[in-house]
């Protein structure tokens, strides 16, 4: 069952669902809009070897970030041009990881899906790839997988980037996400890289 605005407000009032910060104006008929944080991750590796910890750098923006499609053929000249003309802090090519400002806590009988806003889809920007599902009992911020598919897109901190849709489970989960010992992204406070290398056991 998808929760309505009344259901979401009731759960928040009862302190069973936590969204911090919460803005009443961001509540839709059956969803809640979330905003883009100011921290991002850019991977440095030539190849993603998923059995190993990936190399990356964290960046923080004040004004904006310009995300270019993969194989856009960025040159130093283009980067300087974009920075000068559009006053962006960073110019990135390909995918970049971001985060929501919002920290959420789901009870064990509520799950959620993150969905990018349709207005951003109309400029061919996705803010999640395959990781839109948020398990019951999750606590933390949402990491976003951001890709521009057509032309460069300028993103600004605190802009509405996507929405959360909440679902009521038929029965509560026996073990919530953050109660599992192998939960990789429990209580994340900012953007997090892939931790899939933890799935691999190294035999010596």
UniProtKB/TrEMBL annotation:
Q: Which residues form the active site?
A: 145
Q: Which Pfam families match?
A: DCD
Binding residue positions for dCTP: 117-122, 135, 143-145, 163, 177, 184, 188
Q: Which InterPro entries does the record associate with it? A: dCTP_deaminase, dUTPase-like_sf, dUTPase_trimeric
One MF term in the entry's GO annotations = dCTP deaminase (dUMP-forming) activity
Q: Give the record's GO biological process terms.
A: dUMP biosynthetic process; dUTP biosynthetic process
Q: Describe the reaction catalysed, as an equation.
A: dCTP + 2 H2O = dUMP + NH4(+) + diphosphate
* EC numbers on record: 3.5.4.30
Keyword terms, alphabetized: Hydrolase, Nucleotide metabolism, Nucleotide-binding
Superkingdom of this entry's organism?
Archaea
Q: Pathway, per Swiss-Prot/TrEMBL?
A: Pyrimidine metabolism; dUMP biosynthesis; dUMP from dCTP: step 1/1
> For site (Important for bifunctional activity), what residue positions does UniProt give?
132-133
Q: Which NCBIfam families match?
A: dCTP_deam
Role: Bifunctional enzyme that catalyzes both the deamination of dCTP to dUTP and the hydrolysis of dUTP to dUMP without releasing the toxic dUTP intermediate.
How does it associate, per the subunit comment? Homotrimer.
The record's family statement is: Belongs to the dCTP deaminase family.
Q: What is this protein called?
A: dCTP deaminase, dUMP-forming
Instruction: Please spell out the taxonomic lineage of the organism that makes this protein.
Output: Archaea, Methanobacteriati, Methanobacteriota, Methanomada group, Methanococci
């Amino acid at each position: 069952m998808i929760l309505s605005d009344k259901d979401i407000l009731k759960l928040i009032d009862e302190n069973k669902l936590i969204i911090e910060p919460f803005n009443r104006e961001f509540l839709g008929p059956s969803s809640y809009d979330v905003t883009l944080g100011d921290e991002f991750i850019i991977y440095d590796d030539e190849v993603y070897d998923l059995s190993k910890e990936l190399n990356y750098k964290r960046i923080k923006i004040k004004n904006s970030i310009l995300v270019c499609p993969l194989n856009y053929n960025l040159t130093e000249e283009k980067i300087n041009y974009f920075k000068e003309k559009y006053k962006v802090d960073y110019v990135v090519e390909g995918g970049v990881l971001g985060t929501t400002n919002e920290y959420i806590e789901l009870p064990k009988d509520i799950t959620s899906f993150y969905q990018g806003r349709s207005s951003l889809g109309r400029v061919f920007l996705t803010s999640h790839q395959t990781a839109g599902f948020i398990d019951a009992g999750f606590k933390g911020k949402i990491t976003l997988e951001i890709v521009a598919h057509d032309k460069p897109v300028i993103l600004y901190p605190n802009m509405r980037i996507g929405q959360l849709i909440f679902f009521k489970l038929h029965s509560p989960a026996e073990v919530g996400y953050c109660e599992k010992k192998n939960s990789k992204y429990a209580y994340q406070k900012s953007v997090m890289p892939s931790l899939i290398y933890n799935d691999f056991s190294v035999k010596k």
